[in-house]
Design goal:
It is built from two helices and three strands; from the N terminus they run H-E-E-E-H. The chain has about 100 residues and is α+β, with helices and mostly antiparallel strands. The chain has a domain of about 60 residues: 2-Layer Sandwich (Ybab, Chain: A), CATH 3.30.1310. The mean pLDDT is about 85.
Length: about 100
């Protein structure tokens, strides 16, 4: 019984360490004068739009570009997170949880 509790505690500590490590990762993507940054918690942390684009005529172009960039950034940060998890050995197999 105590062995399983220790395994659970170790798993929590490893998951916390992994989460802390992943939160430090950042991906920035840019396209058409717009850039966005997404962090390892999958939060959009920055948006930069070129001043020359900020006109009412460009509204639709900006919206489409932001959607494309967000999708690209999420894919890239997820790949980065997967590689980081693999480098750290992933999560251990715990009997009854796998």
């Amino acid at each position: 019984m105590f062995n399983k509790l220790k395994q659970f505690k170790d798993l929590r500590e490893q998951a916390k360490h992994l989460q802390d490590s992943l939160s430090q990762e950042k991906i920035t993507v840019d396209k058409n004068g717009i850039s966005i940054t997404v962090d390892g918690n999958l939060k959009l942390s920055a948006i930069d739009i070129s001043e020359s684009l900020l006109t009412p005529a460009n509204k639709q172009k900006i919206e489409e570009t932001l959607k494309d960039l967000h999708s690209d950034a999420l894919k890239k940060i997820q790949r980065t997170m997967a590689l980081k998890m693999k480098e750290m050995g992933g999560l251990p197999n715990i009997p009854g949880l796998s």
